[in-house]
Amino acid sequence: MNTPFPANEAVPPASLILLLGVIFCTVSFSEENPVDPEIAIAAGRVSQVIAHRGASAERPECTLASVNRAIQVGATAVEVDVRVSKDGQLFILHDRTLDRTTNGKGPANSLTLAELRQLDAGSHFDEKYRGERIPSLIEVAGICRGKVDLFLDLKEQGAAYDRKVAEVIREHGDPAGTLVGPHSLEQARRFRELLPEAKQLAIMPAVDDLEAFAGAGADFILIWSRWLAEGDGAVKRVRAAGAKLHLNQATGEWDQTLSLLRHQPDSVGTDDPKKFLETIKKIAEGG
């Protein structure tokens, strides 16, 4: 019986045989199973890559460091969460409380903007970012103007809050380069009057509200992963309503990105815009 190795040559150890097998299988798979052409096309059609709370995988979230990093790596938009301080100023923070991302404690809106600015919002992420501050909306709008779109997740409700946000964007930002993220139909309709130049990305409280938000003029509609888990019904409804599809929580990992692209999103939110952009570029090129 013939053997794969001549008798006068040493037989490779089992570990080397295993490694050669893995290499062979990997090469064979990549050559015989390229990226599905429809997925590659979907990757090339993603028009908006939104850095979620800035480049929050690389920098402390909702800080100027994360905003600047998102711009640096090529995100097309930066998402920030807008809240109101005790003295009526708009600032950027995701949580209602200070505990998770700063050295402060308790409700964030119990402090004035000046008091919020004294807190450390960076060292929770990494000691080298100690001294990063909670930014104001005015600061973030000024940094993004002319460089990248600004997506505002409107964490509060009410006419006074909405008017204040619109006022800051008009004075310090770029209305046409703004994405407004309303959480209610009333807010969506109000911003159509306050900032008609801005686009809207609806952050719906319930999937049943989809057609109503589209009817109110939402350009993009966010479909959460928990709704995707129930099937592609919500995605089809977005298309039928004439809106564009936004998906969130992209990591940039290969398999997860392929899974998102099967829904052919127009816009994607990611904590790691650098990695995600690299991955969809490879997918668009066929893998």
**Contiguous uncertain segments of 5+ residues:** 1-32
Structural class: alpha/beta
Number of strands: 9
**Rg estimate, integer Å:** 23 Å
Just name the CATH architecture of the domain at 37-83 and 144-284. Alpha-Beta Barrel
- The largest sheet has its strands arranged as 1-2-4-5-6-7-8-9
Q: What's the CATH C level of the domain at 37-83 and 144-284? A: Alpha Beta
**CA-to-CA gap between the ends?**
41 Å
What is the fold named in CATH at topology level of the domain at 37-83 and 144-284? TIM Barrel
In this structure, how is the largest beta sheet organized?
8 strands, parallel, barrel
Overall geometry: globular
Explain what you see:
It is built from twelve helices and nine strands. The protein has helices spanning 14-32, 37-44, 64-73, 113-116, 137-144, 159-172, 185-194, 210-215, 225-228, 233-240, 254-261, 273-284; strands spanning 48-52, 77-84, 90-92, 149-154, 178-181, 199-202, 220-223, 244-250, 267-270. An eight-stranded parallel barrel has the order 1-2-4-5-6-7-8-9, surrounded by six helices. The chain has a domain at 37-83 and 144-284: TIM Barrel, CATH 3.20.20.190. The two termini are 41 Å apart. By secondary structure, it is an alpha/beta fold. Strand 1 (48-52), helix 3 and strand 2 (77-84) form a beta-alpha-beta unit.
